[in-house]
Amino acid sequence: MSLNEANLEKRFNMVSTSAGSIQSLSSLCLHYKNHHKRIAQIWLRCLQKAKVPHRLTLIYLANDIVQNAKRKNSVSFIEDFKTILKDTIPYLRDDKIRKSVERVFSIWQDRSIYDSKFTSELKNALNNTGRPANNESTKSTTSTTKDPTQAQQHQPSNDLIECLNRLAGIEKNVDNLKSSSDNVVDKLAQGPLSNGDLGDTKVMEDMRLYLTALKSEIEERNRLAKLLEESMLAQKQLLKESESQLSMYRTQFEQIVKLRDELG
């Protein structure tokens, strides 16, 4: 399948910070996975030409692409972006976006998109320093290790919120595509498409975008179901631990009361 580079560049330049806009374009890029290297190069060129706020939007887009590529085991996208990410650093040092970009780098390390050595190099270059970058994820891990119960409480909640936000954006994107292509949806519901429909480029493109969005929605709902199941198991474990602690404290309290009565 050929890649319309001019159209892709236009979409890179027009993508907004909304979850639906980013996820739709991310899905399109992954659909053309055979052109992964060229897509990464066009993305870099657009970022280098973009105004400061839009550079951050393109970083968010890259984040969505590499995270979904990891889920789908599409290593090529991850490696192609890795080869060009250091070229983006001079364009990301503006104080308006630098901290947000650094948080994205931390997410890549936390989720094992890229290893800690590479993300530290990105952070050092971003902050223009040779000192080791502050490893927020290490601090977080250290603090939560001291209190594993707290880690179990908060991590599933963060993942659930993020998943729900993604799902809301995907649902909005599906609704938008449906409202703009009701004719295609009606045709799909009625049965096989005619030869005339199959030869209509717009009909086929609308159908592809709609089906891709539906597939993303199904995948995200499955991910949400898994997170809910994991969260339920974690909460049951927390409840069990809390009940055990309550029993222990009650026993200690009764012993103290008994000792106080004996002492008179």
Automatic annotation (TrEMBL):
Annotated Polar residues bias: 125-136, 147-158
UniProt entry keywords in alphabetical sequence: Acetylation, Coiled coil, Methylation, Phosphoprotein
Regions crossing the membrane: none
PROSITE patterns: CID
Subunit-level organization: Associates with the RNA polymerase II complex.
Protein name: Regulation of nuclear pre-mRNA domain-containing protein 2
Molecular function via GO: RNA polymerase II complex binding
Alphabetized SMART domains for the sequence: RPR
Organism field: Aceria tosichella
GO BP terms in the entry: mRNA 3'-end processing
Gene this protein is translated from: RPRD1A
N-terminal signal peptide: none
Region (Disordered): 125-158
Residue ranges that the Swiss-Prot or TrEMBL entry lists as coiled coil: 211-245
Low complexity bias (residue ranges): 137-146
Domain of life: Eukaryota
UniProt cross-references to Pfam families, sorted A to Z: CID
InterPro entries with a match to the protein in the record: CID_dom, ENTH_VHS
Residues of the CID domain: 1-130
